[in-house]
RNA sequence: CGAGGUGUAGCGCAGUUUGGUAGCGCGCUUGGUUCGGGACCAAGAGGCCAUGGGUUCAAAUCCCGUCACCUCGACCA
């Protein structure tokens, strides 16, 4: 490819609205162009990277006996009603009518399509297990896309679906996919990633993992044990709290606290009270049922984990509107709390507490020395709290750390949610119809690309690992107006292409510095300079983008040297 | 969906306070001089100032509405 003909504008100045490296640099290097909020066009270099990532994924999926298919982007409402997700999924799924007035949806995931595809074709246990996958466009109408390709509405995803006769078989296959995912992310050049236990959310199913790139810009929060390696998404992470000191219960008393409502205000008002000696109430409404209010009690220094609370309730929740009800916002406490339509949930941290401060359920007053078992009684408590750094690992007891990550892939043990709801059965060896057990496995291609960019870019620009670089070599002609130089460079260009080296030639009549800067910005791993100076000495100069190392070699040998470096860095 | 911010040439921005001929840098075109880390000179091209409605002799500028984009939050297989 000649850079003079490459469509995609490279700029010296960063777009003012891009706040993360990969977003800003991919725009500056002419890789991506915004079309609409969360919707991008990819220029040739980005498309080449995407294709290389896809091919690596494809190889690994094929090695797992995967069968590549394509499912449709547009599907009819009826298909999604079979699984019940036409109504259970919210605004994230785009719905529209076709010209005949039929309800259609844009695919945001393809469990329904995969089951619909497989259920008629597969009739016998002898055809299982199998895995079908696709690499295709998804559309999810995100509320707030951000960060360039990190969070978008339209994107390319590899999604795979496996079908098994037994849980054991699924588990064994799941392990193989897990290992394949680790290989995929390593092969595309990602370094600082981990697999974490995750919430299976609307997907259904039980066991699931997310593969996360650890980075401060990540939107997900991950709890990691530095000692035993246990790592979980914050949504499901658990920890052990330090035991409270044993205390004798003191008589409960009412204290005036005026306008103090938040824990910080109350502890400041009362002077000598620590936040962990308080109980706070956090209120929610059940989604679609605004009459009922969920009151979650938790120790004052801790935070409610809404994902866990949702699971305990089995319902979706939204922040409560307390203006209309009988609750006294800011003064809610477990002792003496009365009200119709209340759903009270206690966090484990409140169980067995002694001499706590909590709301008195009337304006301007709190209670001191509230003691569980005497002033109120917990029949059942749950873990509905967020883990904080420094709390103890539930497995080994070491102090947990909290980091941010970008989710770049996930794997789920789905179970029979879709095969049951959509009526997919096969005959087992006893001739009995059973629903196959499913797993599903996703990787976002664009997000993986942006994540690698984020991890490898430096102050000069992008910096692609050889395995996914848009081109291996940036052939930089200094003095392209010199016919001898130009001729030599063009000969090299042809030779490299014959030998399978992917090369981008800078044939422009620009200064050396200008070209070097573009090369660095685009992040091409190797730079080959052909110049009058080098030709005079019959040498060529190779510069390695990632290390800054420069190699001077005899002109005749440079293509072979490049070939060798490329092969060494892809293995 | 809530709060805040921004829309002026392909990109980055000034001009808006105090209404009066649409500007700068980069990039682009042409010619010339340069030529190993974003060269220089000269001459050009390119804008319905997001959009709709007001106010005014006159609106990028003042008023009202709408849209788009960005940030934080909510939401998110």
Summarize the structure.
With about 575 residues, the chain is of the alpha+beta class. The chain folds into 3 domains: about 15-70 and about 105-235 and about 400-455, 2-Layer Sandwich (BirA Bifunctional Protein, domain 2), CATH 3.30.930.10; about 255-380, YbaK protein (Alpha-Beta Complex), CATH 3.90.960; about 475-570, 3-Layer(aba) Sandwich (Rossmann fold).
Describe this structure in words.
The protein is α+β, with helices and mostly antiparallel strands. The chain has 3 domains: 15-72 and 107-237 and 402-454, BirA Bifunctional Protein, domain 2 (2-Layer Sandwich); 253-382, YbaK/aminoacyl-tRNA synthetase-associated domain (YbaK protein), CATH 3.90.960.10; 473-570, Rossmann fold (3-Layer(aba) Sandwich). Helices cover 26% and strands 28% of the residues. The protein is built from 14 helices and 29 strands. The strands form 7 sheets. Strands 3, 7, 8, 9, 10, 11, 12, 21 and 24 form a 9-stranded mixed sheet that branches. It has a 5-stranded mixed sheet with strand order 16-14-15-17-20. The chain is globular. The model has no long low-confidence stretch (mean pLDDT 92). It binds one RNA strand of 77 nucleotides through residues 9-19, 27-28, 34, 36-37, 85, 89-92, 108-109, 111, 140, 142-144, 146, 151, 159, 200-204, 219, 318-319, 410, 412, 440, 442, 476, 478-479, 481, 509-518, 520, 529, 531-534, 541.
Jot down its keywords.
571 residues; BirA Bifunctional Protein, domain 2; YbaK protein; Rossmann fold; 26% helix; RNA-binding
């Amino acid at each position: 490819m000649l850079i003079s003909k490459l469509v995609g504008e490279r700029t010296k100045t960063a777009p003012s609205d891009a706040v993360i490296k990969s977003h800003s640099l991919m725009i500056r290097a002419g890789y991506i162009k915004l079309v609409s909020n969360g919707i991008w066009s990819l220029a040739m270099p980005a498309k080449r990277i995407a294709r290389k990532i896809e091919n690596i994924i494809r190889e690994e999926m094929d090695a797992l006996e995967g069968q590549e298919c394509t499912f449709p982007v547009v599907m009819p409402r009826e298909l999604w009603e079979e699984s019940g997700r036409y109504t259970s999924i919210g605004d994230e799924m785009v719905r529209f009518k076709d010209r005949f007035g039929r309800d259609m949806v844009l695919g945001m995931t393809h469990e329904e399509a995969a089951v619909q595809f497989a259920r008629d074709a597969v009739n016998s246990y002898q055809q299982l297990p199998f895995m079908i996958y696709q690499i295709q466009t998804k559309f999810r109408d995100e509320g707030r896309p951000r960060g360039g390709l990190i969070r978008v509405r339209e994107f390319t995803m590899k999604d795979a679906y496996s079908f098994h006769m037994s849980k054991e078989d699924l588990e064994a296959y799941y392990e193989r996919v897990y290992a394949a995912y680790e290989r995929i992310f390593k092969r595309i050049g990602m370094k600082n990633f981990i697999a974490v236990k995750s919430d299976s959310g609307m997907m259904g199913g039980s066991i699931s993992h997310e593969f996360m790139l650890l980075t401060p810009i990540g939107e997900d929060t991950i709890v990691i044990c530095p000692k035993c390696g246990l790592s979980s998404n914050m949504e499901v992470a658990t920890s052990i709290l330090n035991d409270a000191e044993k205390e004798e219960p003191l008589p409960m008393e009412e204290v005036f606290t005026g306008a103090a409502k938040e824990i910080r205000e109350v502890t400041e008002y009362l002077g000598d009270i620590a936040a962990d000696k308080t109980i706070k109430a956090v209120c929610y409404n059940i989604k679609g049922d605004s009459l009922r209010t969920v009151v979650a009690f938790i120790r004052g220094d801790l935070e409610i984990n809404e994902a866990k609370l949702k699971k305990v309730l089995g319902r979706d929740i939204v922040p409560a509107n307390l203006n209309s009800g009988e609750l006294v916002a800011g003064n809610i406490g477990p002792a003496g709390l009365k009200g119709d339509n209340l759903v009270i949930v206690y966090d484990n941290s409140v169980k067995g507490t002694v001499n706590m401060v909590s709301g008195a359920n009337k304006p301007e007053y709190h209670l001191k020395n509230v003691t569980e078992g005497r002033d109120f009684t917990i029949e059942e408590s749950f873990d509905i709290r967020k883990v904080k750094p420094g709390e103890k690992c539930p497995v080994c007891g070491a102090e947990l750390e909290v980091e941010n990550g970008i989710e770049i892939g996930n794997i789920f043990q789905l179970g029979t949610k879709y095969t049951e709801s959509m009526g997919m059965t096969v005959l087992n060896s006893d001739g009995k119809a059973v629903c196959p057990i499913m797993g599903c496995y996703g990787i976002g291609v664009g997000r993986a690309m942006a994540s690698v960019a984020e991890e490898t870019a430096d102050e000069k620009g992008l910096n692609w690992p050889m395995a996914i670089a848009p081109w291996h070599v940036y052939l930089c002609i200094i003095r392209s107006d010199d016919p001898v130089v130009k001729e030599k460079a063009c000969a090299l260009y042809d030779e490299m292409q014959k030998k399978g080296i992917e090369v981008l030639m800078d044939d422009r009549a620009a200064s050396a510095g200008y070209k070097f800067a573009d090369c660095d910005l685009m992040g091409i791993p190797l730079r080959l300079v052909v110049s009058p100076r080098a030709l005079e000495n019959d040498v060529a100069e190779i510069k390695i983008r990632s290390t800054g190392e420069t190699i001077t070699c005899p002109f005749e040998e440079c293509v072979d040297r490049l070939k060798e470096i490329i092969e060494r860095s892809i293995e």
